[in-house]
Write a structure and sequence with these properties.
The protein has a three-stranded antiparallel beta sheet. The mean pLDDT is 91. The protein is built from five helices and three strands. It is globular, with a radius of gyration of 14 Å. By secondary structure, it is an alpha+beta fold.
Length: 109
């Protein structure tokens, strides 16, 4: 008998559902912007536990959910680890140049 609790399915908005309001709201938070910058600076995916942000695990989960709901990040589950990647292609198609401008903007290290 398997007593494992089923994981909540990961839901991503379709490219046609992305809105500038949700994207800007998601990127306006400094912690979420730091998460996006960290993912953008990698070649692939970042495990949830690998982010260097000054928040608790539950708060990080909340921030990742907002970024996923806004269409900024894609997540996938592999066992007990969730991996996150930037939806760069979708964002570049829907909002050309916006992500590059946000990532290039001066910021605190």
């Amino acid at each position: 008998m398997n007593s494992a609790v089923p994981l909540t399915p990961i839901v991503h908005p379709d490219r046609t559902e992305l809105t500038i309001e949700a994207l800007l709201r998601a990127l306006a938070d400094p912690v979420r912007l730091a998460i996006v910058r960290q993912v953008a600076n990698t070649e692939g995916e970042v495990a949830c536990g690998a982010f260097d942000v000054p928040v608790t695990k539950s708060t990080l989960t909340h921030h990742l959910g907002i970024l996923r709901q806004a269409g900024v990040l894609a997540s996938r589950q592999d066992g007990t680890t969730r991996y996150n990647s930037l939806r760069r292609n979708d964002l570049d198609v829907v909002f050309p140049g916006l992500l590059d401008a946000v990532l290039a903007a001066p910021h605190d290290a």
